[in-house]
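#random but structural
TW: two for the price of one
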Amino acid sequence: MQKGEATKQYLLELAKEEFLSKGYSGASVRNIAKTAGLTTGAVFRYYPDKAALFDALVAEAADGLTNQFKAAQNAHFDLIPTNKVNESTDLSTDYLNHFINYIYDHFDAFKLVLCCSEGTRYAHYIHDLVELEVAQTKVYYDRLRQLGVPNRKVSRDVHHMITSAYFTAVFETVVHDMGREDAIEYVNEVAAFFNHGWNGLLRIT
């Protein structure tokens, strides 16, 4: 590894410790530079500002999960023309297990996003995922109704609150530093609870 690249990686490790300890708002590039034995200006030659340091630590993992989440939503729409809508719950659970393993493969990045991101573009990460889910799910069930598959309409406010509760519960695994195996067991129990609730609420027949 070349010296410049090694310095960049070293700075990222120090920045991660600073952000985890103080959060984004409380973190100081000056402290990171001092610990690295560099001037603040030298740090800015590698990363133009504090936001760039944070993004370098979390963007790939956080944006990657968002893109995978969008792909999972599309997969549910793929069930419609093949008359496999009844497999939707199993598909959701399969994706959930994939997501939780992905999150744990990038645990520190998601710890930063969930606990230390106030003041960054990731401050409302869970909310943004919830908004995606609510919007796409409405389209999904509207399409089912157009095809003659009965399901009860649920108000957007109710849908948003339930989805927010579900996503928050899943990400609590990271917030509370739960081990991977315990997290997998926990999210599957949470999913079973919410799936039964949705089926009862929507009255899918």
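TW: number two ↓
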Amino acid sequence: MPPAELTVHTALTSWRFDPVSTVLCLVCVVSYLAAARGGRVGRGTRAAFVAGCAAWWFTANGFIAVYGDVLFWVRALGFVLLTLVAGFLLAAGRPVTVAVAHRRLRRAALRAGRSWGARWLLSPLATSMLMLVTPWLLFLTPWYSATVESAVAQRATESLLVAVGTVYFYARLQADPVPRHRHAGLSLVIATAETLGDGVLGVVLWQGWVLDAVVRQAMLRDWGPSPRTDQTVGAGILWVLGDVVGLPFLMYLFARWRADDDRSARAADVALTSPAEPTDGVATDRPWFLDDPELSERFHRR
């Protein structure tokens, strides 16, 4: 039976219990809070992680799970919540810091961070491609139809989207230890370019053909928008709402950019004002910035 017409009341009262997401969220919250008891992260950080799990659970059990089978724009809203909201909050919870502080998890976390796979996966190119390509593949390939027709595919997709968002924001925020620190200005430029990429997908869904899966979804209900309108609203959610939700992330990057520049300026001032120490009485013309640890890392000079 199709759900009743979507209204404010039905959105607040419609639920579909999903044991898979419930167990995963509970395991994540309990494990995180148990490992964070040492006080390495503050209450706000812990609250961010719990809120990320709550957003994940709500998306998989609330009205989005009920009406996502018959409305494309609801599925688009679920994508934004899982990748941009839950992913950002989980990364802001600094789970790697919590893991490294735990005696039993420290070695595994450090070993994983030093691996070639982790360095590649967390590089700007890999994380950008992961975030940009995932929605194109999800909405413009048979993958989307599979999530509508199969509960197993939908549960797996939800978990994957949360993982994609968390990995992306973990690499961009760099609030946690990362295999390689990168200047926040680079992340800000890349994030701005990614916003344009999201807009292209929104235009394609808005002006392009109506997806077959969206037409089949409309046939399951006798109320609501037409397939064309449904897909247009979903395109707007992916484009506009995605950018609005991403504003805190951009603001954080801008603040960290200024902090990185201030730290580099202080290091440069110290290097310029410190008296030169000749080596064995022989003066050297070696530029000062080659010996500055902050700048040498930035320019990859040793």
